[in-house]
Amino acid sequence: QVQLVESGGGLVQAGGSLRLSCAASGRAFSSAAMGWFRQAPGKEREFVAAISWSGGRTYYADSVVGRFTISRDNAKNTVYLQMNSLKPEDTAVYYCAAAFSPGARWSPPILRSGYDYWGQGTQVTVSS
User: Fold this and answer.
1) What are the CA-CA distances from residue 88 to residues 68, 76, 108, 127 (Å)?
2) What is the CA radius of gyration of the chain?
3) Could you tell me if 80 and 21 are in contact, meaning their C-beta atoms sit under 8 angstroms apart?
4) What is the distance between the alpha carbons of residues 103 and 124, in angstroms, rounded to a whole number?
5) CA 50 to chain centre
6) In the Cβ-directed half-sphere of 122, how many Cα atoms lie within 13 Å?
7) What pLDDT sits at residue 59?
8) Which pLDDT value is given to residue 112?
9) Maximal C-alpha separation, the chain
10) 43-53 residue pLDDT tens
11) Which residues of the chain are modeled with pLDDT < 70?
12) How far apart are CA 23 and CA 112, in angstroms?
């Protein structure tokens, strides 16, 4: 079992920044690919960013390229999402997720189905 706890969400004005954190406990964090997803009211949960077990490979949704950065610190069992130049359309609940399949370690999934464990989410609200 893996427990994932997100933090760092909040209310910010458009153009501002937030850094989300996801602390993991349980199964070996360093063996997992990690991802961030978000879900806005009335919409499906969508992919935001993903990172391989070593941090050497990252993927981003087109909508956040150049504004968001995913990173991880395996010594602290934590993955981060630095969000800059925030827009009102970034408003959503943000979830982190962990993927333990052998293939996921090297090529982090961008589909929800590729992840085994999910956090409870943290709300991000961007005002205009």
Assistant:
1) 14, 31, 27, 6
2) 13
3) yes
4) 31
5) 7
6) 19
7) 97
8) 95
9) 42
10) 999 999 999 99
11) none
12) 19
